[in-house]
Amino acid sequence: MTAFARTQGEAEQAAFAWELRSVNHRYLEPHFKLPESFRSLEPALRERLRAALARGKVDVNLHFHAAEREIDYEVNTQKVRALQKAAGEVAAIAQLTGDLGVCDILQWHGVLQQPELDVDGAAKELLAGFDRAVLALIDARKQEGEKLAALIQQRLNQIEHFVQKVRARMPDVLAEHRARIDARLAELQVEVDADRLTQEIVLLAQKVDVAEELDRLEAHVAEVTRALSAGEPCGRRLDFLMQELNREANTLASKSIVVDVSQAAVELKVLIEQMREQVQ
Known about the structure:
280 residues, alpha+beta, Ribosomal Protein S5, domain 2, two-stranded antiparallel sheet, 6 strands
C-alpha cells in the first residue's frame, strides 16, 4: 500500500535525511538511491527492510550533506614529483625552457586530496536513522491499511446483499421459466409429452443451480473479513481470495437465465474488481 516516511539526523559532522516511499506490489521490491560513499550499506539496508516488510515497491533515498567547515587538503607528493619529472623530460625532448608553476601543479587532478569520509563512523547513525524511517513507514502503511480495510468491508457487505438477493430469487426462476414454456406451447398449440417436459425442466434446474456458488461466495466473504481482522500481513491471501470470488461470480453469470441474476453477477464482478485494485 502507498506510504511515505522521512527522518533526519546527524553523523560525522554532516546532516542526513532518509526518504522512503512505498506503493502496492505483489512482492517486496526495494530500490536504493545512495551517495557513492555509502553504497556499501545497501546489503544491510536490504536485510533490515526485508525483516520489516513483506510486500511493496519501496524507493529508498539518502540525502547526505557535509557541514560547512575548513577542509585540510592533503598533497599527493608522489604525483607532484611525477609531474615534475614528466615536465623535465618533455622540456628536454622539445628543447623548451620553463618549469611548471605551483598553480599548474595544483590544477592537476589528484594532486590535492580531501580527507576520506569516515563511512564506518557514520554508518551507525545512518542505520539507526533508517530504522526510524522504516518504523515511520510501517505506521503510515498501517493507517493506510485501516482505511482500505474499511473500504473493502463496505464492498463485502454489498456482495453479501447481492448474494442474499440472488438466493431469494432462485426459487422463482424455474417456476417462471416453466410458465414461459407453457405459455409458448399454448401459443403454438403444440402437444408435448408431459413427462419429457418435466425431465427437461429437471435438467435445466440442475444446470442453473447456483446454490454451491452462492455458498462459496459467502464463505470467501467470511474469510476475507477474518483476514482483515487478523492483525497480520494478509495481502497475498487477499489476492488469492479475490481470484476465487471472481471465479464464482463468473460461474454465476454463466448459469444465469434471467436478467436480474445476470445484473447481480455483473455488480458482484465490479465490487470484486474494486477490492482487487486495492489489494494488489
